[in-house]
Design a protein that fits this description.
mainly alpha; 0% strand
């Protein structure tokens, strides 16, 4: 998943969701219609969550 697509969507999530990597991954996975696991790894690889 390209960072330039993920970053703006991550910023649009409510703060309480952004602070929880699992919730962030689940919300973005639903948006991009991919698995939560795949998106979670993508967020880590992009350095957007730890």
């Amino acid at each position: 998943m390209p960072a330039d697509l993920v970053r703006p969507e991550l910023q649009r999530l409510p703060g309480v969701v952004r602070q929880d990597p699992d919730r962030s991954a689940a919300a973005l996975a639903a948006l991009f219609e991919v698995s939560g696991a795949a998106l979670g790894f993508g967020l880590i690889n992009l350095g957007l969550v730890s």
